[in-house]
Design a protein that fits this description.
six-stranded mixed beta sheet, 34 strands, 4 domains, Aconitase, Domain 2, Aconitase, domain 3, alpha/beta, seven-stranded mixed beta sheet
């Protein structure tokens, strides 16, 4: 189904793949009468052209990017704007869209969610932003419909900021990166490698975009084939795909851990922009005559079968055919792997008990969000469901159109009625099922979802309360097939369906009648609307000469998601209050973390108040004495005292900055990792003034150990890549070496200053 090339490739005329295997020069001369270097060929990628257009540094190896537009939802925009205000924000310098699609239905905390929304509206008026009220659209559908454009770049504070199928390079990052853009600063990265994705063939009827996406994710996630790289979609197979279909594949590229994505554009993309009244945003976009890619993913669409990603990761893929043929063996393996991920002896994760008469039975289906709730997905699902019943048993199906314009067109063509008549329910635009704030399954239930992720507890269950549910990802078509089969896992290709493919009609008046567009119309006289839960960031101190760290959580899972670092779901109600939100940090992975971090923080607070930290935390006495055996001049009253966590590979998943900021407000000074799963999580650590240490071997320290890092400030200032450190063991120090990795000069200064807010305050 999916082939990965071991080396780079040249793509000739967008059609012919020539491997960079030593014979490439001869093959290029035979094909085109000339050869080009890899460097020259790499400049012919679509990605290079877009990055070059948006780069302000004058050096294409060291990029400083300014984006055309930005987007945030109601989980993130309060913190972003509060940070920007504290750093000198005057007005939004570019279109900045504030959507309200995440915590809009959370009931925790009384008024605080709607308080956030009114804060967002007042910010849009004061600073010149675009405000999309709750239930109008999920963030990425709105950006597709109203803000995308061929050759543009968009930055979003959500990891699934992907509009590549529309010719737009979009990136999901943590909030501080958006703050930099609001303050007219740049997004600084080394030029990323570009991986070609060659699509050929035509998908079988019943195979949807989620099936294609899962097949690709399964091929590249574990080996890091596209990690922090740009995926560039080319090939003759693109022309046979609708734009909705392309969008469905594209949005899931986030789960590969790539940096961004971009696609060729054609007449279908032109028609899409025409339908949305934005014809001026279209232009043809394709790679050059001879283009070099740092790798190639070859996908024969005709061989893709309906897929299922079993708990607890989108890369845990099987064909539905293989699952049904080897059901008990696969479920047994998933149970064993899942139990290791959950790492909780009080919870029994089980799937084999859902087998009836040799078939897997699920209790819930959901089609939702930026991935599942698109027009074409719902139309095809409705065609499967029409005239059938989902039954009166445990199985339930809910469908969330991705925007009000999509909803309206589905009402007008009758597809909503077909879905509702089956017993399924139709909801308004909301991202809740994607992150655990809507349609939370019952305990021990399995939900099948056309959404973006299926991480542990992402569906909203709480291990600490004795609850466990799980999600398997599937395409909307196979979810619909399963629905009419009363919850028995069924591939859509097993059915004979006449897909009607009704034309889509976009009515932009839906937005004109409700959304606020204030870009270019900032009004400084507007008073911001603060609810009682909206608070400023607490003061954060600069990096000290030496630091003393206590390891308060040691996580040995292969990958640690941002959902585990700070849970999603109802906790999002508190995201405008840094201290309240921090109470939930690692709550579903290491419930003891918050208490341990706060205990260490007592010492730092005492030090900052001019008191002896040893008196605030008695165990520091032994630490102090041990350090002085090697550093007799050490003064603990001048050293930063904080906590750190160790994780093998932290940061997979959401772009949410709170995964880092919650540690910071609890007194965290650093993370130690074998590697960081994503650039965005590492960037979040840095922007919150935390040291992104790397230790590539088995950690020599244990949970509860103290680590002493002398002259850390000097090491950062002098750009040292290796940093001597010590583990406090009894009355002695055990030396080891921490690494830092590549850090820009600005990032070094942010760490020295203590966080991005301090950095701008100093300026």
């Amino acid at each position: 189904m999916v082939k990965l090339y071991d080396k780079g490739v040249f793509l000739v005329d967008g059609k012919t793949i020539i491997e960079d295997n030593g014979n490439a020069e001869e093959a290029l001369k035979a094909a085109k009468g000339r050869a080009v270097s890899k460097e020259e060929g790499s400049k012919n990628t679509m990605a290079y052209g877009i990055l070059n257009k948006h780069n302000t540094s004058g050096n294409m190896d060291k990029l400083k990017i300014r984006f055309d537009a930005m987007a945030s939802h109601d989980i993130t925009y309060v913190g972003i704007i509060q940070t920007a205000r504290a750093s000198g924000l005057e007005k939004f310098p570019m279109p900045y869209v504030l959507t309200n699609c995440h915590n809009s239905l959370c009931a925790v905390g009384g008024t605080i969610n709607e308080d956030d929304h009114l804060f967002g509206l007042s910010c849009a008026k004061k600073y010149g932003g675009i405000y999309v009220p709750a239930h109008q659209a999920v963030i990425h559908q709105y950006m597709r419909e109203m803000m995308s454009g061929v050759g543009k770049m968009i930055l979003g504070s959500d990891s699934h900021t992907r509009y590549g199928a529309l010719g737009t390079m979009a990136m999901g990052e943590g909030g501080p990166e958006l703050v930099k853009q609001l303050l007219n600063k740049t997004y600084d990265i080394d030029r990323p490698q570009v991986i070609g994705v060659y699509l050929t063939g035509k998908p079988e009827a019943g195979v949807g975009p989620q099936d294609v996406a899962l097949a690709i994710i399964g091929a590249v996630f574990d080996n890091g084939y596209v990690k922090n790289k740009v995926m560039e979609f080319v090939g003759d197979g693109i022309s046979g795909l609708s734009v909705d279909y392309r969008n469905g594949i594209d949005v899931m590229t986030t789960e590969t851990t790539c940096l961004s994505s971009v696609w060729c554009t054609d007449s279908k993309v032109k028609e899409w922009y025409d339908i949305h009244g934005r014809s001026g945003e279209f232009k043809e976009q394709a790679p050059g005559e001879i283009t070099y890619y740092d790798g190639m993913i070859y996908v024969d669409l005709s061989t893709i079968k309906p897929m299922i990603a079993m708990p607890f990761h989108p890369s845990n893929i099987y064909t539905i055919e293989d699952l049904n043929a080897n059901l008990l063996d696969i479920l047994d393996e998933v149970e064993k792997t899942g139990a290791k991920q959950l790492d909780n002896d009080t919870i029994k994760f089980s799937l084999k008990d859902k087998v009836r008469n040799g078939r897997l039975i699920v209790e819930q289906g959901v089609i939702a969000g930026c991935a599942g709730g698109t027009y074409e997905n719902i139309c095809d699902a409705a065609d499967i469901i029409k005239g059938n019943s989902i039954g009166d048993g445990e199985f339930a199906l809910s469908v969330y159109p991705s925007s009000q314009p999509v909803f309206l067109s589905l009402v007008e063509n009758g597809k909503i009625a077909d879905i509702m008549m089956s017993g399924a329910t139709v909801r308004s635009a909301f991202c809740g099922p994607c992150f655990g704030a809507g349609d939370v399954p019952a305990n021990n239930c399995l939900s099948i979802r056309h959404s973006t992720r299926n991480f542990p507890n992402r569906e909203g269950s709480k291990i600490t309360s004795g609850q466990i549910a799980s999600v398997a990802l599937m395409d909307a078509r196979s979810i619909a097939a399963t629905a009419i089969n009363k919850g028995v896992i069924t591939a859509a290709t097993d059915l004979d369906v006449n897909y009607s493919k009704p034309k889509y009609f976009f009515n932009g008046d839906v937005y004109k009648n409700r959304c606020y567009d204030g870009f270019g119309k900032a009004d400084p006289s507007v008073e911001l609307r603060f609810g009682p839960n909206i608070t400023d960031w607490p003061a954060m101190s600069a990096l000290t000469d030496d630091i003393v760290l206590k390891v308060v959580s040691l996580i040995t899972d292969p990958v640690t998601t941002t959902d585990e670092l700070i849970p999603s779901g109802e906790t999002s109600s508190y995201r405008s209050n840094p201290l309240k939100l921090a109470e939930f940090a690692l709550s579903r992975k290491d419930p003891a973390y918050v208490g341990k971090a706060k205990e260490v923080q007592k010492a730092e607070k005492a030090r900052l108040e001019g008191k002896n930290p040893v008196k605030a935390l008695d165990e520091l006495k032994n630490v102090d004495n041990a350090i002085k055996t090697v550093y007799p001049e050490f003064d603990i009253t001048k050293a930063g005292i904080g906590s750190t966590i160790y994780a093998v590979k932290p940061g997979d998943g959401s772009a949410r900055e709170q995964a880092a900021s919650c540690q910071k407000v609890l007194g965290g000074w650093a993370n130690i990792a074998k590697e960081y799963a994503t650039k965005r999580y590492r960037s979040n650590l840095i922007n919150w003034g935390m040291l992104p240490f790397i230790f590539e071997d088995v950690p020599p320290f244990e949970n509860g150990d103290y680590i002493f890092v002398p002259e850390i400030k000097k090491a950062i200032e002098e750009k040292k890549s290796e940093i001597p450190a010590y583990i406090v063991k009894g009355e002695s120090l055990v030396p080891f070496v921490l690494k830092m990795g590549d850090i820009t000069d600005d990032e070094r200064q942010i760490i020295l200053d203590g966080c991005l807010i301090n950095y701008y305050a100093e300026k």
